[in-house]
Amino acid sequence: STEPPHPVQSWPDAFAARYRAAGHWRGETFGAWLRERAETHPDRLAVIGGDQRWTYAELDQRASALAAGFLNAGLRQGDRVLVHMPNMPDFIAVAMGLFRAGLIPVYALPAHRITEIGHFARGSGARAYVAAAAHAGFDYTMLARALQEHQPRVEHVWIAEPDAPSGASAGSAPADPFPRLAALYDMGAAVPASVSRGSDVAFLQISGGSTGLSKLIPRTHDDYIYTLRESARICGLDADAVFLGALPIAHNFPMSSPGFLGTLYAGGRVVLAPSPDPESCFALVERERVTVTSLVPPLLLQWLDRAPASGRDLGSLRAIQVGGAKLSAEIARRVRPTLGATLQQVFGMAEGLVNYTRLDDPDELIIHTQGRPISPDDEILILDDEGRPVEPGQAGHLLTRGPYTIRAYHDNPSANARAFTDDGYYRTGDVVRMTPEGYLEVQGRAGDHINRAGEKISAEEIEDHLLSHPRVFDAAVVSVPDEFLGERSCAFVIPKGARPRPAELKRWIRARGIADFKIPDQILFVDAFASTAALKVSRKTLRAQLRARLLEQE
Ligand code: J2J
């Protein structure tokens, strides 16, 4: 028998009432709005990827067919399901199918490996795992096998096959024993458009994890759909919008700001790129007349470098959204002249708060700021180290609460005690200043995570992996400015006895089953961390000292 999902600590009644009265929360659900769209414009294209082109009617049918399939297999409303898929149409069918059945997707990134997936499975109590067979040279069926060995609660595994030319797989039976996602589709099943209420948790998103391991973020239909509706409006999306999913769409940014979900909400068209590589994306922009996409700064740099000589017609692009990490003004300035589209800076977080520069803002704001909040009910505090509001225009710690910022992580009291104030503000860990116009400029970060090209890495998590090596006495991981990645990771290691080779340590960490982007870019050996006079420094101070030492040397 299944346990009910952990109760979610949500907004106090007075706040919820206010957000409903303001029209932010409307009791809409994912399952219901997809059905509505499919009824109003059944033949309009919704999802394009690989050799698939699905209309809204087809997407809606697929969502119902999968909802029926999941329930037939024995899953029950409220059960959590790990979704581990790259950009492929089935990702969207699975997400919509789970929503429709009242099942709770837990989104993992394609780069995640067994250690992270095991952690999400434990934390969410997931009963099922849906993955692509293989992607970017990695075999996810092996991961599925290891997962079921370690987490017997994960009773079900379904594997999605990427498109194969028809007949190609005929003779070759799959090597793994797992049922195929394709066999789960119960086409023609009669399924209600939605079994959920607006206030129900719709899915669990994964936090960047500033300290320790990633936390699970419960998002409700009401709060997330509010961000989709407003994001689509702020980004000018309508039925003519063609959104290119270039980043992995499991990321909160290309999922919801406005991302593929905001595009579908607005009745537009989603084009999925299997890889963010500029050449393959440019080909899709030209072929599908893409109007908008979302990029992280290093990817934007590649687009800017390669667009002029690509020979592709990129004239359909109207807006290029950039977020996930700080964009420098120099690069921001190149967007319009090179790509012929408006830059939109996006500063958001999976926990909630999202800021946008508006498309018609003066260049000054578009180039130099990370935008202003979505909602008039987003409350922003900028505090000094003692917790007092800073003077206007000064930098400080950003705290926020509002109609789409969570009040607590999923089932994690100790993280909640650190991350939320008593009156419900989320401590973002970001250091910002506010301009006289009310726009935010991200100055840096108080926490010790590394923002590597938009991927967040917890220093602590990687230190723990290093410490598991028999020849590592101590380790400290820090971020270092990097011209291309924004930041890269550097591990300082005190060896125990003979010094291991850096390549050996990297192999060791990789073999522990974690995402590649978390493997330190650089490993430096030192005899000691701090002078003996300062034996008892905090981990945070230590990391700051090591970072300073490294920057002095460069
Ligand atoms: C500087 N730092 C930024 C920016 C995020 C939209 C856009 C991004 C995310 C995201 C998201 C930044 N400049 N423009 O979920 O819906 C850093 C901050 C922030 C953290 C959140 C969305 N945009 N950041 O990146 O949950 O440090 O969400 O707190 O992955 O990324 O990371 P994440």
UniProtKB/TrEMBL annotation:
InterPro entries: AMP-bd_C, AMP-bd_C_sf, AMP-binding_CS, AMP-dep_synth/lig_dom, ATP-dep_AMP-bd_enzyme. Transmembrane segments: none annotated. SUPFAM superfamilies: Acetyl-CoA synthetase-like. Pfam families: AMP-binding (PF00501), AMP-binding_C (PF13193). Residues 34-410 form the AMP-dependent synthetase/ligase domain. Residues 461-534 form the AMP-binding enzyme C-terminal domain. CDD domains: 23DHB-AMP_lg. It comes from the Bacteria. This is AMP-binding protein. It comes from Castellaniella denitrificans.
